[in-house]
Write a structure and sequence with these properties.
The chain contains five helices and five strands, in the order βαβαβααβαβ. It is of the alpha/beta class and 132 residues long.
């Protein structure tokens, strides 16, 4: 029996590495991608059984200020996964004063529900690993 393939998409290298390590120890075949562009390339070569996808902020401007990138490619990637009926776990980092706007959270929830392939949503607490 072949191991299930999981694609982890996260812009933080430490988080990608940790998730890969943990999931590999559990017997999964794990690929990592730093962003939606890398994820699309990875998916083109080998279709994963599950994708862990981070959305940093629903609001375009806040997402750009936080990550330096637009949120559009992330949402497009999520739609492509839905079109191919690939399971996805959506991860959202909750930062008080930054990503706690009820309207944005509601829009993200409606988006996730509309996809039909989101099996789980994790709301992650903000932390500053390694900061003093």
């Amino acid at each position: 029996m072949t191991a299930s393939r999981i694609l982890v998409v996260d812009d933080e290298a430490d988080i990608r590495g940790l998730l890969k390590e943990i999931l590999s120890e559990e017997g999964y075949e794990v690929e990592v991608a730093a962003d939606a562009t890398q994820a699309r390339s990875s998916r083109a070569s080998q279709v994963p059984d599950l994708v862990l996808l981070d959305i940093k902020n629903w609001d375009e401007e806040r997402h750009r200020r936080l990550t330096g990138m637009e949120v559009g490619p992330v949402l497009d990637f999520a739609r492509r996964l839905a079109n191919h009926k690939r399971p996805m776990w959506l991860r959202y980092v909750f930062v008080p004063g930054w990503s706690d706007d009820a309207g944005h959270i509601s829009q993200l929830a409606r988006f996730a529900a509309s996809l039909g392939n989101v099996e789980r949503v994790d709301v992650l607490p903000f932390h500053q690993m390694g900061s003093i």
